[in-house]
Amino acid sequence: MQATDAELIARITTGDSGAVAELYDRFAPMLFPMVLRVVRDKAEAEDILHDAFVAVSERASLYVPARGSVVAWLVTLVRNLAIDRARRRARRSALAQRDALEAPPQAGESPEEALAEARSSGVVRRALASLPDAQRQTLEIAFYEGLSYPEIADREGVPLGTVKSRAARALQALREALAKEGMDL
C-alpha cells in the first residue's frame, strides 16, 4: 500500500531518505515544468528541484498539516526557490549589463560590432523612454531591483492588479516597439 503524503513527511522527519525519494518520484514530474517556466533553463530547473528536496529533508518538521496539503507546501517551496534564483540571475545580469555599458569596447571588438551594440541599446532605451512613467517605473523596479509585483504594490501604494496590468501593458509595448526595429524582447 502506498504511503500518504503526510506519512512520507513524517518518515522524512525521522531521517528516512527513502521517503524523500518516494516524495520526489511522486511530485517531481508536476513540479519540474513549473520551475522550468520560471527559470527557463532545464539544467537550472533540475538544480532547483534537487535543492528543494534537500530543503524538504531539512524542513519536514516545519510542515503543518492544518495550513495546507503536502503538495501545496511543496509547490510553495519550489516556487519560492525558483523565483529567488531567477531574481538573483536577473540582478547579476543587470549588473553585468551596466558594467558592460560602462566598460570601453574590447580590443577585439570591431567598430561595426560596437556600432551595432550601441544601436540596439539605443533602441531599447528609446522604447523604454516611450512608455508612460508608471509602466516604465514598474518594469525598472521589477528588473533592476528584483522586486516582485506584490512588493512593488506595497512600495508604490497601489493595488497588486494595477502593478500587474502596468507590467503587462509595458512589456507588450516594448515587444511592439522592438519588433518594429527588428529586435526581440
Brief rundown of the structure:
This protein has 185 residues and is an all-alpha fold. Helix content is 77%, strand content 0%.
Descriptive overview:
This protein is mainly alpha-helical and 185 residues long. The protein has two domains: 5-88, Orthogonal Bundle (Rna Polymerase Sigma Factor, Chain: A); 110-180, Orthogonal Bundle (Arc Repressor Mutant, subunit A). It has helices spanning 5-13, 17-39, 42-59, 70-102, 111-129, 133-144, 149-156, 160-180. α2 packs across α4 and α6 crosses α8 (160-180).
How many helix segments? Answer: 8
Mean pLDDT: 84
Number of strands: 0
What shape does the CA trace take? elongated
Q: Cα distance, first to last residue?
A: 50 Å
Q: Report the CATH topology name of the largest domain.
A: Rna Polymerase Sigma Factor, Chain: A
Evaluate the radius of gyration. 22 Å
Major β-sheet, in short?
none
Strand-and-helix sequence, N→C? HHHHHHHH
Q: Beta fraction of the residues?
A: under 5%
Instruction: List the uncertain runs.
Output: none
CATH architecture verdict of the largest domain: Orthogonal Bundle
Query: How much helical structure, as a percent, in the residues?
Result: over 70%
Structural class: mainly alpha
CATH C-level name of the largest domain: Mainly Alpha
What number of domains? 2
